[in-house]
Amino acid sequence: MTNKIYTIYRSKAATFNEALEEILAAAKESDNEVIRIVIFGAPENNAEHAAERSTIERRCREIFAEKAPIVGYIAQTPLRCRLAAEVTAIDRSDAERVVRHGDYLTIDEEILSGGIYAPTTMHIGEQARVIFERMDQILKAEGVATEDIVRQWNYIEQITHLAPEGQHYQLLNDERSRFYSMSEWPNGYPAATGIGAQTGGLTIMFDAVRGSANCSKAVDNPLQVSAHAYSQQVLINNRDAHKTTPKFERARYVAADKGSVYISGTAAIRGEESCRHDVVEQTALTMENIDYLVSRENLAKSGVENPRQVEYSTLRVYLKHREDLQPVVEWMDEHYPQTDTLYLWADICREELLIEIEGIAVERV
């Protein structure tokens, strides 16, 4: 595994194009090899999302030339800037190991994807099927098993919307379950996030590692029921059918010189029940869940040998309501002042949940 460097860039420029140029120029000046850029913006509709995504992809090719990073464009409004980007980079000494393939790249045994999309004229379930077919093509082309996916991000337009075909999040879960059912998962599912987006249909991104059982561990959290073990009562749909559960682990540890913990989207849930408190109380409980999840004690319980103390590299905070930003920022600044935190406006999979947090924690050396 190659050690990654994660950086958040922000621009308050007045227009999309100005903000994009500022962010890409800053990323280009990095001392490291930029391999993936995920941009967060506020397109007003699917047509604008597609146009802005095309601009991002074109400008990355023009600016970075043959070393263009893979990219994703997510319709989640940044709450403290016009445009934001989460950039993944590696040390330049490792740059020659990177092989680029359009919407994904490989670094030795690793696969990192950019955004994988489907026509937004399809309903979410159909989009999911198309996207999982593309994921299957990528994995087979590289000789990597489906169960070697270690991290997956699922961005779902209007995640709680009850379409005639079913709830958007449940449609994604059903297609994910179908795709995953074609493989055995003896070492647990990937870490994952399923979160809302304003437009853009469904976007999925993933990381995989060939032979992941040799270098990664599923990390459970005894404070929470595993998402893949949820009861039917906490799953929502408008169709009289069995609802498949979200297939992900609470986190996944991946070994490298500095081991990383991919923290799944986490909310104020104990057991499988939401805690129905105000946003600050939900924030505190969410971070309590995450702090225990990545603790040395819990990593050891999950089978990580001689785990070291970790520190948060980046956190993404998703807020259901824009007006909740200030109290959450104040709480996070007080309790996690050293962590680079990105705040985004995005709907969450349960109506009562006001905040969800994901991130990456890296072992201290």
Structure in a nutshell:
With 365 residues, the chain is of the alpha+beta class.
Written overview of the protein:
By secondary structure, the chain is of the alpha+beta class. Helices cover 26% and strands 31% of the residues. The chain is built from seven helices and 21 strands. The strands form five sheets. It has a seven-stranded mixed beta sheet with strand order 4-20-19-21-16-15-14. The protein has a six-stranded mixed beta sheet with strand order 6-7-8-13-9-12, covered by helices on one side. Helix 1 runs parallel beside helix 2, helix 3 packs parallel to helix 4 and helix 5 runs parallel beside helix 7. The chain is globular and about 50 Å long. The protein starts with a strand and ends with a strand. The model has no long low-confidence stretch (mean pLDDT 93).
Beta-strand residue percentage: 25-35%
The coarse overall form would be: globular
Strand line-up in the sheet with most strands: 4-20-19-21-16-15-14
What's the order of the H and E elements? EHEHEEEEEEHEEEHEEEEEEEHHEHEE
Blueprint (SSEs and pairs):
Elements lengths: L4 E7 L4 H13 L4 E8 L5 H19 L5 E5 L2 E2 L4 E8 L7 E3 L3 E4 L2 E4 L10 H18 L7 E9 L4 E2 L2 E2 H13 L10 E7 L4 E8 L6 E4 L31 E4 L5 E7 L2 E2 L2 E2 L4 H15 L2 H6 L8 E10 L5 H11 L4 E6 L9 E9 L2
Parallel strand pairs: 2-3, 9-12, 19-20
Antiparallel strand pairs: 1-5, 2-5, 4-20, 6-7, 7-8, 8-13, 9-13, 10-11, 14-15, 15-16, 16-21, 17-18, 19-21
Keywords:
7-stranded mixed β-sheet, 365 residues, 6-stranded mixed β-sheet, 21 strands, 7 helices
